[in-house]
Amino acid sequence: MMISTITSKRHDFDGSSVPGSSFKELSLSSVKVKSPMKTIRNRRWLVAVVGLLASTALIVTVGSVVILFAIHPSTTTSNTTCFTAPSPQPSNAWFSVGNMSTPRYLHASTFISQDNGILITGGLDGTAGLASTERYIPSTGCFRMSSGMSSVRYYHSADAMTSLSSWVVIAGGLTSATISSTADLYDPITETIITINLAFPVYAHSSTKLNEWQLVLIGGVTTTGYVSTGEVLRVGSPSAFISALNTVPVGIVWHTATQLYNNSYLALIVGGTDGSSYYSTVSLYQGTSDTFISLAPAVLLSTPRAYHTATYLSYPINQVLIAGGLSNSVTVLNTFALFDINNIKFVTITATMVTSRYFHTATLLPNGKILVIGGANAVVLSSCELIDPANNFISTSVASLNIARYRHTATLISSSGNGTVLICGGVTFSSVVINSCEIYIA
């Protein structure tokens, strides 16, 4: 097993400094929460149709639902081109595209099916939290600003829901001074936002779609400490978040929660930390009953992990590959763990990554391979590798990033068909937060 020992300072949610400034990320003891708005669970939504004048911003409140209308740069056109793919198109190559308008990390990135673009939301710029959003336009390789969120958000989640016409659910997070108790529903067509309540305030959680009508937030931090339960959004009339009915064994952050697909309505929750201990626990979340099922003590990771990745591999493989992460506060892993869904247990895997890493990303490509990007160990990494599940999970080095980074986002541009991945932002050398983005062509 290859390991690396961290000697550089990690930037975590536990009170360490934000890169590039004297701004302090909030410790749990310093976080306060605003009084939550009345739940809309039993309310019907009233749809308001409002005409907009140019250069106008308008907020309409209907009960406890806030609708934000804003004029944004999408109303104008631009002939600017920031990136044109070479012809003939290469493979295994990284290309720089247009920069985001501001440096970001702890942001979220979501594929928008309507125009095959990418929505970037919130984050920290190294000085302060961000409420801004922007969209990547594949036809030009540029970014443009979009409607701002209802508040600053970082350590949040953002998921597109097909049953909501692919609206993006931007949930929870920190708002600089409080833990958010709301979610913004972003309409990718009109770029308007509706704000609804969470069941309870949360940040640093995981988010997983169990199906196109059900989204679950698991773990994280709330006003009383680390969260050992979840809250689920059911799309309907009304659409509302409710709390799960039980808990996982411990309150956790930096775990993974992975949808098991094939209409199973299950998510696999692996590892995590509470800021001091690292866990080997494994649980399932069952969407049909809103309950957690602990698999301990029969099923445990062989090595505790946090800050790892988890990738579901569909039939006929039907397994989840866990990669890298930390096993304690200083030991970075290059090992895998392989969870077999048919047998509900971990199975033997001898392959490893080329490089130990955490705070990396892992993206499943259309060809069935997994692209592992960047991250950190004792240094910030530009290296990438490609894992081949069809060849005993052998991992090989591929083209490196132009700019080393960790805590970035990586999003598959689904319409590409050739395995195009967009990465954005993150932290590079000297703890500098960056606004650069790159495209990988497989």
From TrEMBL:
Coiled-coil region list: none
Gene3D superfamilies: Kelch-type beta propeller
GO BP field: tRNA methylation; wybutosine biosynthetic process
Domain of life: Eukaryota
Protein keywords: Kelch repeat, Membrane, S-adenosyl-L-methionine, Transmembrane, Transmembrane helix
Record-stated family: Belongs to the methyltransferase superfamily. LCMT family.
PANTHER family noted in UniProt: TRNA WYBUTOSINE-SYNTHESIZING PROTEIN 4
Protein name: Uncharacterized protein
